[in-house]
Amino acid sequence: MTCKRILLALALAGCGAGVTPLPPVPPAPAGSLDAWREAPPVAPDGDVALGMAIRRVTFDNGLSLTVVTPKGGNDTTAIQFLVPSAGDRSEGRVAVMSDALRAGTRMDAQTVLINPKLAYEPIIISTRGVGTTFSWQVLARATEPALRLLGNFVFHPVFEPTETRDRLQASLTWVQNDSGGPSHLAKIARGSLPGLEVPTPEQDARGIFKLTPDELGRVHRCVMSPAGAELVVVGPLPFEEVETWAKAAFGNLSAPAPRAGCDDLAVRPVDPESARLGRIELGIVYGGAFEPVVMMSTPGPAPSSPEFIAFALLTEVLRVRDEGSAQNLRHMGATYGVHFNLNDAFPGMSLLEVQGQFAEHEVQPAVRQVIEDMRGLADSLTAEQLEEVKRRWRNGYVSNLSSNGAVAAAALWQLRRGRSPEQVPEWPRELMQISLEQCRDVARRWLSDVHPSIAVAGLPGRLIRGLNLSAHVRIMRWTDQLQEHKKGF
Amino acid sequence: MRASSLRRLSLRFCSAAALSVLAPLCFERSAAAWSPSCESAERYTLENGTEVVLVPEAGVPTVALVSSVHTGFRDDPPGRAGLAHYVEHLTFVGDSRLASPSDLYEQMGATDFNAATSADTTDYYAVIPPSQLERALWIEARRLALGVDVPTEERAISERRVLLREHASRYGHVPAYSLMQATYAALYPSGHPYHASFASEDSIDRLTLNDARWFFARHYRPDQTRLVVVGDFDPGAAKASIEKHFGGIAPRASVPAQGASDTGACRWEEAPRGGVPKRIVQHTRAKNERLELIWPVAPDEKPELRRAEFSTLRGELSQALRQTGLSHQVNAELVNLELGAFWDLRVEVAPGQPFDKVEPLVARVLHDTQVAVPGARDRLAKRQAFELSDQLMRERLLSRARGLAQRSCTASSCIDSSRQPAASGGEASERFALGNAMVIERRYSIGASEGGDLEVVR
Lengths: 489, 458
Prior knowledge:
The complex is a heterodimer of chains A (489) and B (458).
Chain A: E1 3-6, H1 8-13, E2 52-58, E3 64-70, E4 76-84, H2 93-100, E5 105-106, E6 112-113, E7 117-118, E8 121-122, E9 124-128, E10 131-139, H3 143-155, H4 161-178, H5 182-191, H6 205-209, H7 213-223, E11 230-234, H8 239-251, H9 272-275, E12 280-286, E13 293-300, H10 308-320, H11 325-331, E14 335-346, E15 349-358, H12 363-375, H13 377-380, H14 383-400, H15 404-416, H16 427-432, H17 436-446, E16 453-458, E17 471-480, E18 484-488
Parallel strand pairs in A: 3-11, 12-16, 12-17
Antiparallel strand pairs in A: 2-3, 4-10, 4-11, 5-6, 7-8, 9-10, 13-15, 13-16, 14-15, 17-18
Helix pairs in contact in A: 2-7, 3-8, 10-14, 10-17
Chain B: H1 2-14, H2 16-20, E1 42-45, E2 51-56, E3 63-69, H3 83-90, H4 101-107, E4 111-117, E5 122-128, H5 133-146, H6 153-171, H7 175-187, H8 201-205, H9 209-219, E6 225-231, H10 235-246, E7 279-284, E8 290-296, H11 307-324, E9 327-335, E10 342-349, H12 358-371, H13 376-394, H14 397-405, E11 438-444, E12 453-457
Parallel strand pairs in B: 2-6, 7-11
Antiparallel strand pairs in B: 1-2, 3-5, 3-6, 4-5, 7-12, 8-10, 8-11, 9-10
Helix pairs in contact in B: 3-6, 3-9, 5-10, 11-12
């Protein structure tokens, strides 16, 4: 056996010297472009008829069931179950507990299942500020056992000690494996946003270390209740049949009264008006092996607010319009992309998030451009820009409805907005009625004087000097992948 | 003791509990999983060689369109890794006279429009309302006709900077990228198109607009293009539009070849793999350790028939490693490259666990699982899993269209991938034995250099 050290630079990178030039290829004559100047006109949008039967019922314990039966479609059932207010303000304990539900599901006095699956398909769990969502897609003929299993999975966990330890170790492995990449850098930046007191449900290593089966049981008792929970079932099944199955699986659960000792896990709605900052707050985290990641956040209206859709459209305009900072910074070669995203997973508010990764010397002008872009949007927004993003949103929404899973998510989203799930097929029409003036008014209220919270993670050595924005700056250091960062000045 | 208690719990799920708790799932029909070769599609070729694949089906009013060029980073000339990707970026550039494809798509409310450069193909795709199909076909025809004649030198330079940013944001300075390069360099013989196909900051920085024009003229030819349309559209009208917009496109002037795969790429599919080293070890400062096993797919092997077996192996390994606490994350996939596919199994070692105990356990589970005869209930669960994945795949128009765009050196007929291969289940052949695999270790070492230190064992 021969062992051989390889010097990476020599073995893999190659050397610039000696690269053979490619033969010159002239561009096509200028006239040849003429034939392709005029695109076929944009065809008018046809009316979209999305056929589906939708019914909803609320059980005595406060849990509501929505059944959507699409016309056509395939032979699968999509299930989404949202247990609200299952977020927390402290290191993601609810997220870890929700994942640890896999450590034992009591079906009856004799039977405990570990991480139950149907046709090898596990339940997908996602915890965000507004609650925990359990999603599952199963064969339609497996709907009844799936609902039975899901009810027990969420409300009758066992937290078997050795299994629980394994689940916590698994969570730790996920955190650690993720810790070398740019997504982790973005997570650190998000977690370091100064001045914004919003729940952060993402799990981290510190939270995992503190959890025991007893503590998981306490967290479960505090947050998992049928009261206010929403069960959405989409598939080729009659309402009456699904209602019978759902009632058997969920209808007999009692909603516990508010318990003592749960205050630390209570999620109170955040008022976006009072959460807005009066000055720019800037946090800087040193560390990492990547170019700096910039994260900017500012509060926006709640999903149930009449201003929400207009605000979401403004976010899209900022992301895609050619005249804006996102495209301009990309065309300059300053970044691979600036992502404007409206995070609507907080109780009582939304959060406009901007994320980008830049060459170090581009960070400062990029931050300034993005802020100016947001502040000027009320005046610079055009009818064409708005129409384009409305059409894209509408068409993307319609296209997604080919999937039962997407229909279930759309129904849950309407419910979270305080609307009826019957709004699902009507939503494209509602969207297209949003006007330019509405959007400009919303931009004036929320963006014209925006003071975002900004975090930069990476090696942003030259950011502070000359930023020329009235900003409060704190500097942090990322000392270890597991310990995240500690604050310092 | 612990293992037996867990085994008892899971056996309950698979046997008694399956009857009492989940009885309706048993003893029912099932079907094969979706695969491009089994898709019922109309396929034909235009006079200029452009292939067309149409899958009309009524349903939600939407259409997925893919214009796929049979070239990718395997065709990057020596010293110019990243060129195929650069060309992809430049075809999106517009100017004051000619709107960019992105602008044209945005105006008509398209969603999901983008492009992806892989080793073997460069796919341009969009999801559109059916009424916009004519315009979308025109956009893709224009892309093929205009090539990279629109960008100026200045715009080409700024797009190169975007590529550099993309490279930095994806790979940074982490050791994982160099390990991936070392793996490909070891897996494919010298001269093979995948052998040294990874871009670096240097190779990207060297790219010019003339390079892009050469690449386009050489590889973006009508007879290297495949158009795929899947969704709710009128096939007669689509055929007429395709003929109208694509039928008149001629190849660019001939330019000389450069690079490993430029002539007769498929000959590399038969390339011997005898030189594959047994083991690559990377010492890094990162604490997340990993054991990875790779089995090259033989030229005459039909990997579709082994997907179920590979998936079972992953499940068994996952369970065994979890029970011992050695690992809680096992990933497995078929990396389906046209000129040399491989099976890839990755075990993420749990923090603080002894790395050296992982490999012997993996070897034992691989052996035990492959010689065991699967029970009837296991086989049923697998077939139901295939049926479910098939149903879910049919919802995903764009994924299906992209699957139909993939090329193969050998024409393949429809294969029922839910069938077990003849060799598995108690027979002597162990396809996925540790002894046949290339082993890749990522080990924590406090003294390692920042970029990681590589060691290759032959």
